[in-house]
């Protein structure tokens, strides 16, 4: 079952940060510069995290993934220009 995930990262290298952002944007919506909302199956999320880790320096960079069940997500307060529509078309990186 696909679940909503909040994915945030802090990556120093500009090229690696761009590659991570592209992969995340292919799966969801950017809500802040380094924060994405992604609705994805657990197995796909695990694969995505493995791909992202290839572009991280674990001595300097960080990644956090917070899985949200539907009940928890229904209590989220979204203000301003945040769009959490998981059905919105997204860019795909080939």
Automatic annotation (TrEMBL):
Cofactor(s) of this protein: Mg(2+)
Matches recorded under InterPro entries: CRISPR_associated_Cas2 (IPR021127), Virulence_VapD/CRISPR_Cas2 (IPR019199)
Keyword Lipid metabolism: no
TM regions (residue ranges): none
Pfam families per UniProt: CRISPR_Cas2
Keywords of this entry: Antiviral defense, Endonuclease, Hydrolase, Magnesium, Metal-binding, Nuclease
Keyword match Cytoplasm: no
UniProt GO molecular function: hydrolase activity; metal ion binding; RNA endonuclease activity
Swiss-Prot/TrEMBL GO biological process terms: defense response to virus; maintenance of CRISPR repeat elements
Binding site for Mg(2+): 10
Record-listed E.C. numbers: 3.1.-.-
CDD domains named in the record: Cas2_I_II_III (cd09725)
Domain of life of the organism encoding this protein: Bacteria
Its job: CRISPR (clustered regularly interspaced short palindromic repeat), is an adaptive immune system that provides protection against mobile genetic elements (viruses, transposable elements and conjugative plasmids). CRISPR clusters contain sequences complementary to antecedent mobile elements and target invading nucleic acids. CRISPR clusters are transcribed and processed into CRISPR RNA (crRNA). Functions as a ssRNA-specific endoribonuclease. Involved in the integration of spacer DNA into the CRISPR cassette.
Record's subunit section: Homodimer, forms a heterotetramer with a Cas1 homodimer.
Family: Belongs to the CRISPR-associated endoribonuclease Cas2 protein family.
NCBIfam families, A to Z: cas2 (TIGR01573)
PANTHER family, alphabetized: CRISPR-ASSOCIATED ENDORIBONUCLEASE CAS2, CRISPR-ASSOCIATED ENDORIBONUCLEASE CAS2 3
Protein name: CRISPR-associated endoribonuclease Cas2
